[in-house]
Amino acid sequence: MSDIVEYCPTNLTEVIAASARLNCGEDRFGNDQYLCLPNVRKTGLVEYCHKGVIPLIPSGYCVDTTGGQLYSRKCEQFLYGCPSQHFQTNKIYRHPACLNINTENRCYIADPSCPNTTSTFTTEDMMETSSTYSNFSNTTVNTLYTTTTSLEDVPDVGAVVGGVLAAVFVITVLLILVRVVLRRRKQRKNQLRDGRDEETPLFELTNETGNKTAENSNSPAGNGGQTESLQTEPDNTRSNKNGKNKPNALHEACNNAKLEIFKHCIQTYPDLLHNVDNDGWNAALYAARGGNVKILQLLTNNEVDVKHKNNDGWNILHVACVNSNVEMSRSIIQTYPDLLQNVDNDGWNAALHAARGGNVKILQLLANNEVDVKHKNNDGWNILHVAYVMSNLEMSRYIIQTYPDLLHNVDNAGWNAALHTARGGNVKILQLLANNEVDVKHKDNNGWNILNVACVNSNLKMSRYIIQTYPEFLHNVDNYGWNAALHAAKGGNVKILQLLANNEVDVKHKDNDGWNILHVACVNSNLEMSRYIIQTYPDLLHNVDNDGWNSALHAAREEMLRFYNYC
Predict the structure, then answer these.
(1) Strands 34-38 and 45-49: what pairing?
(2) Burial letters for 272-291: b for 16+ Cβ neighbours within 10 Å, e otherwise?
(3) Main-chain phi, psi angles of 205, to 5 degrees
């Protein structure tokens, strides 16, 4: 299931937080399955947990989605920002031009044919509420409507709504027909030019030999592909047209710590030793991930660059730390001590990667070698913030005991330890913080408290604990007028909304723009929540917000988006 969002993550820190919030897993190659992309009609941004292997996108293309299917889009005509290298879909945040869209005209802003205009109402105007990621870069995400209706001007709201919907439907059908004709003409033109439609499902992308790309060939960009058998066909030793190497058997042997296969590869195909994949990973980085120290030593003996960094700025020590490999980490520290102080592109040092990996022994090893364990990344996160978001109790307890001064640090968005813990969802960590006098009543830059965070992240256990322990939060309102009920409606967990109602939270509260819980549920496409609210609070059906929008208009907007995507 996908959700419409105001913003997509702009860096790795935000991706990690978003993935944790949606509880996304990893594909069979270890790649995070969280995606945030434009929909195919460029009417909004959607986030969801992808099912299956995260595919590789060719250079010169962006990617969008509908119904869980991914489609590539040519972007060579962009004025700026078209990816010049292959990239994995879950790392599209590195290419903001592929995320910045004009939803009124349904086009990429960087496309020279895209009008440089915006509609009267934007998503920010409509929602005026903090995203889960308060420091995301803004994108142009507009509504389908540019006019409003006042109840004072007409006697019958139902008639007006019906008329508006009928008019919108007729216009939509006409636009779709025009769009279909134009698309077919463009398809014919593209097919004549290069034999490939610009809107191609990624599972149909072809490799340079003309054969359909197998699932494995899309996988290894970020963390390395795991194959069930050694692949030593010629394709594993060649480069593609852009000079970028394809995943090869040597990378897979390193990634899976297969020493004998590794030896066979370097003896049979020595030219593979210096290949770098599309995400900047060389054999040394894969070996650090696989954890076999002997393989890394053999790579060194064969003059492989063991100090190479991938496209994210990760070195072999970062990789060993985030994969919780103590033996590999110790060997790298002893052999290449100059890597200890390296920081990646997002400001993560080895200590932050170790906190994410969750191995206390590695963090101790780094501290003993004078790594700055109090370092902050570009978003102001320290090792304790990372441990909270990852819900790692053991790591959190160790850091609190060893570095108690980190307890009260606040990141760039105003999030303290308690807010990060409410996002991560581990009640025991929140109790541990309270016992150590952390301000659990702290609010972020948007006025969010820990209950707001737990509600919007759909964490029932955490919400129940906060309500029982800190009942004074029940009636707090953030800077945009959102109370806990509105955050729960956005999060989509009906049980949390029921819990709030049972504790006398005003579930009919309106925010600064006049939105109620039904408006929020409708605009976030949550059918279960919308059905529950309608059945339980039918009087909310006829409420109108400050711009004259009632529930029907909010729901119609989402239904119209679905209609566009279906067509």
Answers:
(1) antiparallel
(2) bbebbbbbbbbbbbbbbbbb
(3) -60, 145
Cβ pair 15, 379 in contact under 8 A: no
CB 92 within 8 A of CB 99: yes
Alpha-carbon gap, residue 432 to 56, rounded angstroms: 42
68, 209, 265, 324, 341 from 216: Cα distances, Å: 19, 16, 19, 25, 35
**Could you count the other beta carbons within 10 Å of the beta carbon of residue 205?**
18
Backbone angles phi, psi at 182, to 5 degrees: -65, -40
pLDDT tens-digit map of 154-180: 344 444 445 555 665 666 556 656 555
Can you tell me whether residue 448 is helix, strand or coil? coil
Q: Find the distance separating the first CA and the last CA of the chain, reported in whole Å.
A: 19
Strand, coil or helix: 101: strand
**And the tokens for 443?**
């609010």
Over 90: is that where the pLDDT of 451 sits? Answer: yes
Taking alpha carbons only, the member of 301, 298, 339 closest to residue 320 is 339
Outline where 269-359 has alpha helix (H): 283-290, 293-301, 316-322, 326-335, 350-357
Give the distance, in angstroms, between the CA of residue 72 and the centroid of all CA atoms in the same chain.
18
Query: Nearest CA to 18 among 316, 283, 440, 379?
Result: 379
Helix axes 427-435, 460-469, angle to 10 degrees: 30
Burial state string for 455-467 with b = 16 or more CB within 10 A and e = fewer than 16 = bbbbbbebbbbbb
Distance, CA of 71 to CA of 201 (rounded, Å)? 5
DSSP label of 337: G
Q: Specify whether the CB–CB gap between 435 and 429 falls below 8 A.
A: no
Q: How many residues does the chain have?
A: 567
**Amino acid code (one letter) for 542:** H
Residue 468 has which token pair? 């029982």
Phi and psi at residue 295, to the nearest 5°: -65, -40
| Cα distances (Å, whole numbers) of residue 52 to 203, 213, 529 | 11, 15, 28
Q: Residues with Cβ < 8 Å from 480, sequence gap 6 or more?
A: 128, 129, 130, 446, 447, 511, 512, 513
List, in order, residues 6 or more apart from 192 with CB less than 8 Å away: none
The residues near 129 (Cβ < 8 Å, ≥ 6 apart) are 478, 480, 482, 486, 490, 511
**560: Cβ–Cβ under 8 A, 6 or more apart, which residues?**
144, 168, 172
Query: Strand runs (DSSP E) across 103-171, as ranges?
Result: 107-108
- CA-nearest of 231, 268, 274 to 253 is 231
89-142 residue pLDDT tens: 999 999 999 999 998 889 999 998 888 644 333 333 333 333 333 333 333 333
Kindly report, residue by residue over 330-367, the tens digit of the pLDDT.
999 999 999 999 999 999 999 999 999 999 999 999 99
